[in-house]
Amino acid sequence: MHARGIAACLGAAGVLAAAGSAQAAQWADGAEVYQKVCRYCHEANVGPALKGRELPAEYVQRVVRMGNRAMPAFRPSEIDDALLAEVARLINTSATLAKE
User: What is the CATH classification number for the domain harbouring 44?
Assistant: First the structure.
């Protein structure tokens, strides 16, 4: 992962941190969280592709909460547990993205 990509991911995490718990209440559903947070890195070849890999929901939730390498951790005040469970299910059941 290149430095600019890492900075972009950390920037997305910083936006969520600055918004705090008010942001967690503003998400419509897990799909919106994926679109506005996860997709930013994971569909831009910054982080690994998530869709179509059938990643276990428990694994996705653990990585989101604890972080992993360049991936920042997200607190429950940023993405609450119910929304995180929706995101994890979405990733687990998604089809592989078509290559452009």
Answer: 1.10.760.10
Domain extent for 30: 3-93
Q: Could you give the number of structural domains in the chain?
A: 1
* pTM, 2 dp: 0.73
pLDDT tens digits, residue range 18-71? Answer: 444 455 558 999 999 999 999 999 999 899 999 999 999 999 999 999 999 999
Sign of the alpha-carbon torsion through 80, 85, 86, 91: positive
Question: CA–CA separation, 79 vs 24, rounded Å?
Answer: 5
- Please list the alpha-helical segments (H only) found in the chain: 3-26, 30-33, 39-42, 57-66, 81-93
